[in-house]
Automatic annotation (TrEMBL):
UniProt-listed CDD domains: MFS_MefA_like
Coiled coil: none
Pfam families per UniProt: MFS_1 (PF07690)
Keyword annotations: Cell membrane, Membrane, Transmembrane, Transmembrane helix, Transport
Main location: membrane
Keyword Membrane: yes
Membrane topology: Multi-pass membrane protein
InterPro entries xref list: MFS, MFS_trans_sf
Subcellular location: Cell membrane
Name of the protein described by the UniProt record: MFS transporter
Superkingdom of this protein's organism: Bacteria
Transmembrane segments: 50-69, 89-109, 115-138, 150-171, 177-195, 231-253, 265-285, 297-320, 340-364, 376-401
PANTHER family for this protein: MACROLIDE-EFFLUX PROTEIN, MAJOR FACILITATOR SUPERFAMILY (MFS) PROFILE DOMAIN-CONTAINING PROTEIN
Length: 431
């Protein structure tokens, strides 16, 4: 069997990989630059910062909930490469709006009245962009790759995605906001030209009809997918994972500032370490499974993830913050006597999380006919986005009730137990 990395030399995979990598990089460069500016430059209390972070997450997720059914139908009905070109062109227009918001924020001009609304509008539009690209990046793989290459290809896409998240996250924390404004536009342009190189991926069957009624199509798609037991178990397992992810990602910026008393570069470091871990887990699980799509290691992986979340919680509760309202810079933070257990537990969360979720995504696209792959991924995205909205609302509700950020981590650990139970049921049903 060809090694996964060998796919990077093939045109049937490399342009898609690069296009997805650049899109993920741009998403996170823009989103992180926006969130860090608001958290560190506009608000001054943990509750407001957590609420804004939750609102931003919800705005980005909402299009997945509303438009995934349409995106899945289009991806199964039209050449997927053609959709990629259209979506990537739209990204250029979206990032021009987002760049305008970042420049206004940099200038301090009408920040709350104009800059933040423009930033949130661009974030919502990027959510739409990702909604239409999401089903394609997984559903196109069974068309362009051999069956024994799909798990490796999926792992590479996930690893590349999180490496891109790492790069975008780190960059947003260290460059000025005006440079970020230029960067998101340039990246969108490069992504458009990369997307034009993706080989054609015409619909497997020509008889797909498209229901343009958003609500009816979403209900029908989820109902038509979730009644199949193995798909139901896989989708619900993934959804619980992303509910946990939503809670963690909402907490990271305010936790870094208010619990660990660290500056925005450290908040970026958190997300960077998380991204590295997901990438490592994505590659490691492919090596363990030797290319076979299986949920064999999913229950154990998510249980290990729960253990690391609990360890992360204990480290946070014992952390010694900076005195006199100061914030640790990256150098002081890395010299803290508890930094190794802190970053180690965070890395453990991410590695085990990557090992849990990657085989489940590969399972979705290989356990159905190729003509239904995009719709299956779209149905998964609908349920995932609903679960992430629930996770965001839970985080916001707990913050409103005065539950500390570090204690909210225990909720994430508890949800891992449910994911492990579901993954075990999937393993017994299908392996």
């Amino acid at each position: 069997m060809q090694t996964s990395l060998g796919l990077l030399s093939r045109r049937r995979f490399l342009p898609l990989f690069v296009t997805q990598l650049l899109g993920a990089f741009n998403d996170n460069l823009f989103k992180q630059a926006m969130v860090l500016f608001v958290v560190y430059g506009v608000y001054n209390d943990a509750a407001s910062e957590t609420i804004f972070s939750g609102i931003a997450t919800g705005i980005f997720i909402l299009p997945f909930f509303l438009l995934s059914a349409m995106s899945g139908q289009l991806a199964d009905s039209i050449d997927k490469a053609k959709i990629i070109r259209i979506v990537k062109f739209c990204e250029i227009l979206i990032m021009l709006v987002g760049a305008a918001g970042l420049v206004l924020a940099w200038q301090g001009y009408a920040v709350k009245l104009l800059a933040i609304p423009l930033l949130l509008l661009a974030l919502f539009a990027m959510g739409i962009h990702s909604t239409f690209f999401g089903p394609i990046k997984y559903a196109i793989l069974p068309q362009h790759l051999e069956k024994d290459e799909v798990l490796g290809g999926t792992g590479l896409v996930e690893a590349g995605t999180y490496i891109a998240i790492l790069a975008g996250t780190i960059l947003a924390g260290v460059i000025p906001v005006e440079i970020a404004a230029i960067g998101v536009v340039i990246t969108a342009v490069i992504g458009y030209f990369a997307g034009r190189q993706v080989p054609p991926a015409p619909p497997v069957h020509e008889d797909h009809s498209i229901d343009w009624h958003v609500i009816r199509a979403s209900v029908a798609l989820v109902r038509g997918t979730m009644h199949i037991r193995h798909l139901y178990l896989a989708i619900v397992s993934i959804s619980f994972f992303w509910t946990i992810g939503a809670v963690l990602f909402i907490q990271f910026p305010p936790l870094a500032k208010n619990v660990l008393t660290a500056d925005k570069a450290v908040a970026s470091l958190f997300l960077a370490v998380f991204s590295i871990g997901i990438a490592i887990g994505s590659i490691a699980i492919n090596r363990l499974l030797k290319g076979k799509v299986s949920a064999r290691y999913a229950p154990a992986s998510v249980l290990v993830m729960a253990m690391f979340v609990v360890a992360f919680y204990f480290v946070c509760t014992q952390w010694g913050g900076a005195a006199d309202g100061r914030l640790y810079g990256i150098g002081e933070f890395l010299n803290h006597h508890m930094v190794i257990p802190l970053l180690g537990s965070l890395l453990g969360i991410a590695i085990s999380g990557g090992m849990f979720v990657v085989p489940l995504y590969a399972f979705l696209t290989t356990s159905v006919d190729k003509s239904q792959a995009a719709r299956t991924v779209a149905a998964n995205n609908i349920v995932n986005s609903g679960a992430m909205v629930v996770g965001s609302l839970i985080a916001l509700g707990l913050s409103a009730l005065g539950v500390s950020i570090e204690h909210q981590l225990l909720l994430s650990a508890a949800m891992c137990l449910i994911s492990a139970w579901l993954a075990q049921k999937l393993h017994r049903a299908c392996d």
